[in-house]
UniProtKB/TrEMBL annotation:
Quaternary organization: Monomer.
Name of the protein described by the UniProt record: Alpha-glucosidase
UniProtKB keywords: Calcium, Signal
Keyword Glycoprotein: no
Top-level division of the source organism's lineage: Bacteria
Domain Glycosyl-hydrolase 97 C-terminal oligomerisation stretches: 528-626
Signal peptide interval: 1-15
Keyword Cell wall biogenesis/degradation: no
Gene source species: Pseudozobellia thermophila
Entries under Pfam families matching the protein: GH97_C (PF14509), GH97_N (PF14508), Glyco_hydro_97 (PF10566)
Amino acid sequence: MVRAVVLFCLVFACACVPSKTVDPVTSPDGALSVAVDIVDGELAYEVLYKGKQVIAPSGLSLFPGAKVVVAGTKVRTSKTEWEPLWGQFDKITDHYNELVLSLKYDGVAANLYVRAYDGGAAFRYEVDELPSDAQPAYFIEYGLSQNDEVYMPAGEGMPKGPIVLGDLAQMDSVPDPWQMPLVVETAQGPFVALLESDLVSAPGFSVIDFDFDTKGDKLFSNNRFEAKDDKLKTPWRLILLEGNIGDLITNPVPLNVAAPLALEDPSWIKPGKTLWDWRVHGYTAADGFTYGINTESYLRFIDFAAENGIGYFLVDDAWYTDVSEGHIEMSDKLDLEKVMQYAGDKGVSILLYYDNHKGRYGDAALFPYYRELGAKGIKYGFQGKNVPFTRNAIQMSAENGLLIDFHDGPVPFTGITRTYPNAITREYCHAQQDSRRAFTPQSFIRMALINALQGPLDMNNGVFDIGSVNAGEREKGPKAKNLYTTVTAEAARTLIIFSGLVCLPDAPEAYAEKGDLFEFVKQMPVGQWDETRILHARMDQYISTARRSGADWFVGSVHNEPGGTLPIALDFLEEGKEYKVTYYEDTDETHFKNNPEAYRVRQGTVKKGDLVRAKMAPGGGHCMWIRPNEN
């Protein structure tokens, strides 16, 4: 179970604020400060990082156009420690200083919470009594420099950027849409991420929207409020700041501001790996068997999963033909009951896809039906930015003991894994082979540094038979050669992208034929990490990630063109111990376009302080499994 231990909490209060200026709130380490002021009856804030202005004075409001006064303030410090059910760390410290402003917006009472963390600032409004005629909209400006460069997700395409804000100020119209999170390379030094968290606790609010005011030269964001309730709570709006871009990925602030665990007994929630049938259809194994939507294909998947400690098998679309309330008409191509029984006997759990883009089936009956079928989870497709639906689906799947994975540009719901850890992953990215296209090495690095900030990603990495995919031998694969990667990079990607469900998209035989390389994926835990470090990261060039489970470390690195070498300092190992290491590497002949499946596996020993030079081919990768030498 998740627990939280309160270490200390101090509260100071004053009854009124005669001055327009409120004293700044500063992060525990003193590096970040947030100042709030009233200018001509409107609220403004400013963010400084290590003495430099990162966000110039900018507006924020809950009732745009309404005048505001400060009726009182409180300042408190809080430091707690909690254990996520699963995540990138086994323990997370939640340490912040908080300013609470009691406000009056033309007579409407509201509280604004401003938190300063070591890694960022967080803002939330709450209203206890909302007038029926009120029209709130959660609005914040970001006074960035005109020289700052912005990157953002782009659905099933490569993330956009760099966009120089000064260039936008000269344009009559701004590219749309701007999706969360935004990553900013600032002229002042730190890297900034703009996003939200805990939307699940803010009924009535839409997902965050970003835009740029060319007249005011300001980037801003908004959340529409559509509920008719007498109470209001906004999502937390976050400004993360780090000296290294990779540290944004492990920044705990989005989880710390999220609501605590909402489930009494989450012990049934198990992160893990899953095989997946959709990209395998049409693959012919060496024994002549061709995979498709049929019972024999699924039994082969289940056998391989059971033999290799893979906990799940995901059956995608076309296992059913029609639906009605409380019932799904099964396809005559397979015997789902037999598949379910066989999987249960083998200790493998089944996840079932459901495509509701035609709106044919109500959720109230769907989730109990999945539970009755024996499914352990659902992959839900084509609901987009439907916030109420997504919130309800997460909650109803939890009530029925089901994991849930969202397909196709879903609501990000950052922080949801703390509150509802059954929301195991989501395709908030260009997943591998989406629309029968593969992403480039550059796209992967961008998504790892941008899309991954919003939470776990279902990216479908780990293609091992690259030649078969590029030859068009898969029914649901690319129609032309466009899978540019190396097999070692594919293995590394399964570690670099954090998820509670690592979805492996290739055929069992493809993994068995490269069993020595697949060992890295097989041995790698999923979701339940004790420690995570981003060792190297640079936009469009490379990323290297190290994750620890117990005494074992797994390290995955990838490089864009033209390839290169990253120095991996093993300073994270324990002093005085010798470790065995298995290297999974590109060869001198490997190339992501013309020789992607050349790799080598070798053994060695290492100790704390050693330096490994991880050499990668163009578009290639490098992996290490490091564990104590017990001999």
